[in-house]
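Fold sample X.
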Amino acid sequence: MINRVVLIGRLTKDPELKYTPNGVAVTSFTIAVNRPFSNHQGEREADFVPVVIWRRQAENAANFLHKGSLAGVEGRIQTRSYENNEGKRVYVTEVVADSVQFLEPKGAPSDGQLASRDNYSSGSQSASRSQSKSTQPSFEDPFAGDSKPIDIAEDDLPF
């Protein structure tokens, strides 16, 4: 049997971090994933999928993700049930994540659109490249030439 799911979407609210009585971290959040088609009115719909992640990844997700963050989730679908306060059986289907990938740079605006890489790079060379509307691709090697240290801000690193 195979039970694997991969989702990319945006968080609908800030992740909620809790600890079990044994001190194990667990974070839950809901991710909105756009459907690949439009409804009869021409509007795009989304599915809102509950996600649960455990241990160190749970702490990382709670510390670095927030409402609107673009994230990739890989895991498995799990169903469970419990009896609520009114005595009714409640069924829950959720993704138990093995891995959560942060798909935007730290501090990136969460406006629902992916931003181009040039918006987050530093230096005059990338700024001049994004301003010019040249149709020919640039084949310049940014690491060629002098062997001076590269000045990269910590916020520009993807990890």
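Fold sample Y, listed below.
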Amino acid sequence: MIRLLNTLFGRDGAKPFGAYERMLALRYMRARRHRFLPSAIAGLSVTGITVGVMSLIVVMAVMNGMRAELVGKIIGVNGHFFLQPIDTPMTDYKEVAAKLEAVPGVRRAIPMVESPAGISSPTQQTGALVRGVSGEDLKRLPGIEGNIRQGTLEGFDASGGLAIGQRMADNLGVRVGDTVSILTAKGAQTPFGVTPRMKAYPVKAIFQFGLSDFDQLFVYMPLEEAQVFFNKEGEVSVIEGFAADPEKMDDLRMKIEAAIERPNILTDWRQRNKGFFDVLKVESQAIFLILAIIVAVAALLIVQGLILLVKDKTRDIAILRTMGATRWAVLRIFILTGVAIGLIGVTLGVGLGVPLALHLDGVRQFLNRAFSLNLFPAQYYFGLSQLPTVVERHEVIAVAFLTLGLSFVATLYPAWRAARLDPVEALRHE
């Protein structure tokens, strides 16, 4: 390794990557009859590296954008952390919520009664997750705020009605003003045991989160009504909190635990959605690996091209050696040729990939209009109306250096063969 570094950086007495080495390296990349055109193999190698780098950048940007959008929507609906009581019911939820909102980094804390239940209309029925929340707090939920499609949340506490998702309303065949029934197995306590409880409620508002799974699951009712219906008078089952920066939950967790002076179970959005985001991470890594194979194939083209180039330039190499060029100078010439191919491919790949990633949704819309297509339909992609992309600078840099590293490694064997060439044997057959 030390000897290789010495030879690459000219410690054999020659100036490393001098003018004549650069001139010969670039000359060997061109076709014989066309001064400014690359040879066929060099052109294929550059094209392969360009396509590989561009594909990596675009796909990673889409994966980053999808993750950011889904995290924003999922934790916007479900909150960032959840405080549940232990041992004793949480009857002091107003005081606990006030303490949470006083913690630096906590934007809001919303007490809720939460319970699974059945919901039915005159024609259909389905399951639901019913959340009892005050009208004031309901308006502060990021998933509800600005997403009411029908009806209103004004006077929600006194209305005795429900707010349901758009997809649930479509499945049940109801609109604002229609009546639905809520059924829970945990009803009144009688001498014969617990009896189910059912009650009819009018639909006061219909919202749309943008995630179909949530639009067909959540039902909101006034907090006091939920406390009575689910036998939780004067208490709540959970306090849902929202953080200023959900990525810094570890630091925030310590502050919350120090501020709350009662036994509790504290969970955050990472724990509740761990399986989902683990799948996204595995998919991202798998796609990166698959597309990296394109770059590896392009690197193999560099190997093939340089081997053919060494065979074609055998006579030239022999003449250079007889004129005084050292083995290491020949080695550096062919390394420089291969790295130049990689550098051109990386430059073109980054130059094309980054703008394409930043304007990918515009390209999608153009293709949809021009060819009457329906690329990336919202109903199949979590209700996302746009193709989200987020270009991370460190990922682009990592892809560029990875590709250059593969290009450098690909040049070593052909360059070593060229350096080992015996000028006497090469000229003997000329």
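Sample Y note: The two ends are 36 Å apart (CA to CA).
Also: Confidence is low (pLDDT under 50) at residues 33-38.
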